[in-house]
Design a protein that fits this description.
heterodimer, A: 397 residues, alpha/beta, Glutaredoxin, FAD/NAD(P)-binding domain, 3 domains, 5-stranded parallel β-sheet, B: 82 residues, 34% helix
Chain lengths: 397, 82
């Protein structure tokens, strides 16, 4: 995308207003202060038929706006985006920026398929907040989630992938088979769409969970674990994530109560690693145990109520980390014609095509996915090949 | 107008990484307080955010008003940086 240029001056309130508007929409632009250099002012006057009005905003399609209201600016940007910078529809919009998405983008941009990724939170997705990824091929000592995400992002950008912080609200199939993507920053039109929004940790819906969020209740060990140095905490869950994060949290907490509803389901490798912390007494495992409520002093968590069989007891702890399974990030598809399964994961055929023509899904969000980073990367590559085939099949492409 | 920005982070926090990356992309200077390296400043972050979490971004404006953004929250952060 070419740059938006804003000619303005520091003393001009409307320039500040327009720039604030663009900043809030996270729209990149070049700001040129007409007072800083006479040639800048001359350049602006040559574009505006000598009308000395600021802000003067030049859009990438050549449209010039002078002292526009925010509404006028928004409309011009939307009109411009809907047809992209060169009056072209975007080849591929990808929703989400996790491993599946970034892999697809590496493939598609490398083949000159114009690709834009919209991400509302973290590049790398859930993988990026994982302490250590030990089973991703090619890294004999494992790799931190953050490092893997960083490498994937850099590789995708090397081939020209654009990543925008933006939230997708709806995907609509247009009569000509193009897809209209409604986002917080306006509408876009694409020939193909890949949904790779992944999953997020589930809530356990017990009293105190919402009330003490970030004040003793956490879902991200790599973010918040450092606050529990020399403290006693509980971890809820018995799957791979829960055990991996428990092992990570042993760097900080003196004692960790691992509360498992049934039995530990994590891989043997992780269980073996965990065993040394159990043997040293740093981790205490409570099997067949449910958490009833999270309690505190209205400021911070100081204990939890747990239930094992018929026996209830309180455990004095400083914080709770919850890793009890994953929920699909598919809320934005609730009223769409894209078919979901009972658990709200996206149904696809063998070509990773959803029920909407030209809309594909890959990675953890896909019904039947194996929820592995290596699988997500594989699906990303598979999706790219099918998307390429789909784009080639379009008469207008 | 922004006078200064301080970001409380930890080494492996992906959301901290995103805040830093966002500020870097905007060419905005900031001070980083890495709580893994400076654990004695944890209480400072807790006092600012009211919680035990990072990233915590403190934006001080030229009129010395202070604004705190918890997490990688662009809808709260961006208006403060204009």
């Amino acid at each position: 995308m070419k740059n938006i240029i804003v000619y303005g001056a520091d003393w001009c309130p409307d320039c500040h207003r327009s720039r604030k508007f663009l900043d809030e929409k996270n729209i990149q632009y070049i700001y040129l202060d007409i007072d800083s250099d006479k040639s800048i002012k001359s350049e602006m006057l040559s574009l505006t038929d000598n009308k000395n009005i600021i802000p003067t905003i030049v859009l990438p399609n050549g449209q010039i706006l002078q002292e526009p209201s925010n509404q006028v600016l928004a409309k011009a940007l939307n009109d411009f985006k809907s047809v992209s910078s060169d009056n072209e529809v975007i080849d591929l919009v990808i929703v989400g920026a996790g491993p599946a998405s970034l892999t697809t983008a590496i493939y598609t941009t490398r083949e000159n398929i114009k690709t834009i990724i919209f991400e509302k939170a973290v590049i790398g997705g859930l993988a990026a907040v994982t302490d250590l990824i030990d089973n991703y091929p090619g890294f004999e000592d494992g790799i931190s989630g953050l490092d893997l995400a960083d490498k994937l992002e850099k590789q995708a950008k090397r081939f020209g992938t654009q990543i925008e912080f933006n939230t997708v609200k709806k995907i609509e199939l247009l009569p000509n088979n193009d897809k209209k993507i409604h986002t917080e920053n306006g509408d876009y039109v694409a020939r193909a769409v890949l949904i790779a929004t992944g999953t997020d940790y589930k809530k356990i819906n017990v009293p105190g969970e919402k009330e003490y969020l970030s004040r003793g209740v956490h879902y991200c060990a790599t973010c918040d674990g450092a606050f529990y140095k020399d403290k006693e905490i509980a971890v809820i869950g018995g799957g791979n994530s829960a055990i991996q994060e428990t092992i990570f949290l042993t760097k900080f907490a003196t004692k960790i109560h691992l509360l498992v509803r049934s039995s530990i389901k994590a891989s043997e490798v992780l269980q073996k690693k965990l065993q040394s912390f159990i043997d040293s007494g740093q981790v205490i495992v409570h099997l067949q145990t449910n958490i009833v409520s999270i309690l505190g002093d209205n400021q911070l968590v100081n204990r939890i109520l747990i239930k094992q069989g018929d026996i209830k007891q309180e455990l004095a702890i400083d914080g709770v980390f919850i890793f009890v399974g994953l929920k699909p990030n598919s809320e934005f598809l609730n009223n769409s014609s894209i078919e979901l399964d009972q658990l709200k994961f996206i149904k696809t055929n063998n070509n990773l095509l959803t029920s909407m023509n030209g809309v594909f899904a890959a990675g953890d969000i896909r019904s039947g996915s194996t929820m592995q980073i290596a699988s997500a990367v594989g699906e990303g590559a598979t999706a790219a090949l099918h998307i390429r085939q789909y784009l080639e099949s379009l008469k207008s492409y | 107008m922004v006078k200064n920005i301080t970001v409380f982070t930890t080494n492996q926090c992906a959301y901290c990484h995103m805040v830093k990356k966002y500020l870097d992309n905007k060419n905005l200077k900031y001070d980083e307080v890495n709580l893994d390296n400076e654990p004695n400043r944890r209480q400072e972050a807790i006092s600012l955010s009211g919680g035990m979490t990072v990233p915590v971004t403190l934006v001080t404006q030229h009129d010395d008003s202070r604004h705190v953004v918890v997490g990688f929250n662009l809808s709260s952060l961006v208006p403060l940086l204009s």
